[in-house]
Every structure is written in C-alpha cells, then in structure tokens.
Amino acid sequence: MVKKNIKVLLSTLGLDVHSRGVLTVAKYLRDAGMEVIYIGNSMPGQIIKAALQEDADIIGVSSLGGAHLTLGSDLISQAKKERIYDEKVFIIGGAIPDDDAGKLKEAGFDEIFISGATKEEIVSSITNIFEKKLV
Amino acid sequence: MDKNKETTREIINKMVDKNKGKPLFSRVALSAIKKEFDKWKGSNVREYDRNNWAVTPQTMLGSGIPREMIYSPLNVSDLDYSSDLGNSGQAPFTRGIHPNMYRGKKFTIRQINGFGGPEDTNERLKFMIKNGATGLSVIFDIPTVQMYDSDDPISRGQVGTSGVAIDSADDMDILFKDIPLEDITISIVTHYPSNTAILFPMFLATAEKRGIPWEKLRGSVQNDITLEEVVRSGPEYIPPRDCFRIQCDNVEFIRKNVPNWNFVTLNGYNLRDYGTSSITEMAVAIANGIQTIETLILRGYKVDWIAKRLAFFWSISNDFFDEVSRIRAARRLWYKIMKYKFNAKDPRSMWMRCHVQTSGITLTRQEPLNNIVRAALQALSATFGGAQSLHVDSYDEAYAVPTEESALISLRTQQIIQSETAVTEVVDPLGGSYYVEALTNDIEKRILDEVSEIEKLGGYVQAIEHGWIHRKVANYFHSEQARMEAGDIKIVGNNCYKSSYKTPPIDVFKYPQGAEERQKEKLAKLKESRNSRKVEKALKNLEQACRSDTNIVPYSVECARHGCTEGEIFKVFKKAYGLWKPPVFF
C-alpha cells in the first residue's frame, strides 16, 4: 500500500474508442490504495480543467487509436500554459510505437506505459515518480 | 420481452428431445468400451493423470471448459449422426452451410483497410485487389466512428487515425474511386446502428450517382448495438432503446431496398476482444439476433424474409479446438433457434454465416514476428470451423495500423492456407472427433444457458440498460488480466520464455500527412456549394422521423443526397433521443 493518498485522474484521450486498458490501470491504482477518478473521453483542455477541479496529483491518459502524439503533446503544452506542469505527474499509455514513446518523453510526459506493462511496473513507477516530482 | 415467456432454451430442449432417434453407438458397444476404458484408466494411466483427469486450459479469452485427458465414444455416447451433425449443407448444419464448402467457394479473403483521408485508403484498397483480395472491408477513422466531422474541435489531431475519414457522400465517392461497386463485395465496417444509419446512406448515394441500382450492391454493414453501447468508449451515447430502434430501422430499410446486402453483422468479435469469454461472445450476439428478429416480426415481417440475410462476426483466439468447436456449435444452435423458436422454413434462414477475424488482443509487442504464427494458427482453426470469410490480423498491430508489408503477409497467410495445405479440400475435417464433438456439445449448451440468462433479464436491450453486460465484461477482463500477470495464462515472449535478445525494430506505419487539413478544406467547399435550404429541410425531416414511429433511414438517405455531413446527422439523433451514460466498472 502507498503511504500518502495519491489522487489520480484518468481519461481516455479524445475520441479514442478503447477503454479496457485505462479501466485496467484504474483498478490497479485503486487496489494499490490510490484515489482514482475516471472521467471518460476528454480533450486535453477538459482534462486539465478536471485535474484542477479535482486537485489530482497524477494525470493519466490512454490512447490506442493513433492520436497520442497530437493530443498527448497538446495536453503537456496546455498544462505548461496553465502552470500546473510542475505540480502534477503526467503519464500516457496505450498502443504507442517506440519512436513516438521517445517523442512523448521529450514533450514532457513523466512516464509512458506501452501495451504489456504489468501492474507492478505501473504502480511502482507511478509511486516513484510521484515521490520524486511532487514530494 | 416478457420475463415469464418460455426461454429459447426451454423451447429448444423440448423439441430436440423429440427428434433424437438413431444413436451412432450401440449400447452393447458402449458398455464394452466403458469396461475396457475403466480398466485401462485404472491400470495404464498413472495416478497423477487419473487425479488430474480434467484440466481447464488457461488461454486468452477462453471458454473455461475443462478438458479430459483423452476422449472416447463415452463422451458422445448419444451422438446421432443425422440429428446432431448431418452432412454438410444439411440440417442442423453442424458440418457447414454448403454441401461442398470450400471446394465450391473458398473463404473470402477480406482484410480491413482504412487510414488517412478517402484518397489514401482508396490507394490501399486498389493495392489489396491487385494482390488477390477477393472482398473489401473498410474501417473508419475515430471521429467518423464516433460521428463527428473532421472540422469539429473534438476531432482535432485524430482525423484519419485507425481508419479512413468520411464526412459526407462526396468522401464515399472518393473512397471507392475506380472500384466497380457492383462487382466486388464490400464490408462497410460501420460498427454502430447510429453510424450505419448515417454512413451507409452515403454509400447508397454514391451508387446512385454512378447509376448503379441498389439491388446490384453486395456486401455488409455491422449495425450492432453491442458496439455502440457496450464496447465503445465515447463522449456521447444515445439511449440503448433508441439505438436498438435504429438497428432495426437499418435492418428493415436495407432488407427492402438493398436486397443483397447483409444488413446486420451480429458482432461477437469486438465484445470478446474487449474482454469476454468465448461463450459470452456468442451468447450476446445470438441474444441480439433473437431480439432483432422478434422486433421485425412485431413490425409485421415474416421470419424468413429477415433471417436469410443475417450474418455473424466472430473473434478467433488461441484455444485451437475450442475455436473450431465453437463455430460448429453456433451453427447448430442457430439452426435450432430458427427452426424451433421462429419456425423458419427457408434453410437459408437457418444458416449461421460468419466472418471471422483473428484476435487482436492476443498480439504481443515483444518479438512482433511471433504474431504471424499466432494469427496463422487462429486462421487455421477458423478454416476448420467453416467460416465464410476471414481477416488475419497483422503482426505490427500492437504498434499501429498495418503497413503495406504486414497487410500483405496477412493476405498471404490466407492464400497459403488455401493453396498450399490442402485443408480446404475436405469439409469439416475434424467432425467426428470424439473430442471435437464433445466440446461442440458442451459449448452449445453453455451458449444457450447464457442466452437464457439474458432472456430472463427481459432481453438483450434490457441487459444493456441495466448495465448487466457492462459488469459481466469488466469482471471478466479484470480477472483475465490478473491471470495473465500471474503467468497462469501464458504469453510467449511476454510472461514466459522472455528473452534478453533484442529483436530488430520493425517498420511501423506512419499516417499520411495532411488528412485533417484536406478534410477540412473539402468540408468548407461542400458547405459553400450545397443547397443550404435543402440541407436544413432534410435534417428537419429526419428529426421528425426520429421522434415518430416511421423508419428513419429514408430520411437519412435524403440527408446524404443533399450533402449533409455525418456530424450534422448525429446532432439530430442526439437532439431527438437525448443522451445516456453507460455504467463504468473498475
């Protein structure tokens, strides 16, 4: 179990039709003791707004349909514009080619989970980044 | 459905008991076999195997049916060749719907295509035809699937991803440029009832423009409530009841006006790949089929008129014999439902015709070339099961949309099965195997049990409204995920036989540039050139139809003819029906 109560906001990015992955991650994180809110399909602006309202520590988005670069980068630049980039952890997961994973890291995502990531990897990585970036 | 009504299981069981008569194995033979079997099991079989006689295979999206160590006539002791199997092309069609099966017509090689704008996908379609594809299948991009226009702010950055962008009938014309619509069968993977009612009319308007009578068009749409209300993640949903009404409107309109078109493809595939057992996959599609036929009968149509163009779409996963048996079981069960529950007369109404796609979720990112092997084995089991058409997933799909190279390998996989292995020469080659027949019986019973469970909830639409199916699926995929991570379900290269060998990077598909801009430009031009008075009138008439009992599709065809866009039509649905929020479980 995680010591401090971490609050996570999860969303399916844009119009992506897939949700099995993000719901699986939601369950992992809740089982690990985090507070999880899933807001369904949202565009970057809506996600930032919801994260502010909910005062979430972690913002996680899921993309399997190919829009990870366009909407993912947009999420980070909007977070920077709203000056919350340094206050929150940003993660993205889904069907993401290796080259693009590098680009998303450069864009500013704290972690990228590609298909096949395990519960242990996801929970421990999020906990570590949270402690490094925010505590 | 009235909850006190006799369930399909009760009806079928009553009739089937009456029709049994000529068991294949005599009592004398069976009792001798049993004596010998028990003796052998007691002496020749080691104690460990005796104690672990039935083992439940742990496979992805499996049925959970335990398997004995060996099967014998004792497992199918009351098998009656005529009433349980029949010859191919004969009731109950267990062995196949045609007498000669693949000798007459090999399964159709139908690979899904779609990316970028219609100009991009048109090139890929022509590439596939040039290389021997015998049917076409088109999938739409995310905004099109979700029913938003390319210039809607919510579509930003997603135009042309995962499929082809279509905003209006003009795009449909570009998509099928130089492709003779009357000469090749086309699967238009519309997924949902709502987008079927929007996109198929655009296809019809294109045919009309080219002077092709609708009667000459052959192909299919998906048109399935399960995809719109259960499998889909999306920002806006219309209520299940209205969605089902549109599904039935599509069925009715297409059956009347495009008689050679398959108006519904009862879809198990996406539900199963989303995460459910091989049994639930089929039970849900069958329950949906039952409710669709019942509704059309209530609208005054004869069962045979509707049922003879019904088609199914199954996912094929890794448990080889389970998959073969499942297709056989579904064929027999559908026959019984049509014959005993609906009193169909035309044998064609009793055919469970199906398209099959190998399972996307079984593909791994690690050592991606292994996926070619997985998909080939799955394709082989679909062939043994007697599928009518097949799509083989490409090895790079855990990364992105298939490249030309990987799509070609999928095509070649099927051509190798058809041309090099001789498996298509003999009909139902596994029929009569004690194992396959026992498994077929067991699967059929389990599917029917789940169909009854749904009927007891009041029918499939009610099962969706109550969130019953959403909960069932979420429970399944959460528990499957745990079994995968515990290593109980083995995935080579992922959770077992992991290697430090780094496979060389594969070429990953790059989306063509500029699709979003091109779509936006075309939309702007369209909006300038079309007759806005006619557009408004067509949309208004559609809204009125939505609010009344008339079939809405003639009105959406009219919308397509006048250049209404997909987003404009979906707005009408949302206005007329309101929005619904499906339950989410984690």
Molecular structure report:
- The complex is a heterodimer of chains A (135) and B (586).
- Chain A has helices at 20-31, 44-54, 68-81, 98-107, 119-134, and strands spanning 7-13, 35-42, 58-63, 89-94, 111-114.
- With 135 residues, chain A is α/β, with parallel strands linked by helices.
- Chain A has a single domain (7-134), classed as Rossmann fold (3-Layer(aba) Sandwich), CATH 3.40.50.280.
- In chain A, strands 2-1-3-4-5 form a five-stranded parallel beta sheet, sandwiched between helices.
- The longest helix of chain A has 16 residues, at 119-134.
- Helix content of chain B is 50%, strand content 6%.
- A five-stranded parallel beta sheet of chain B has the order 1-10-9-8-7.
- The two termini of chain B are 30 Å apart.
- Classes of the chains: A alpha/beta (135), B mainly alpha (586).
- Chain A binds chain B through residues 12, 14-20, 23-24, 26-27, 30, 36, 38, 40-43, 65-67, 69-71, 74, 95-99, 114-116, 118-120, and chain B through 142-143, 145-146, 148, 153-158, 161-162, 231-235, 274-275, 364-366, 398-401, 474, 477-478, 481, 485, 494, 505, 508, 511, 584-586.
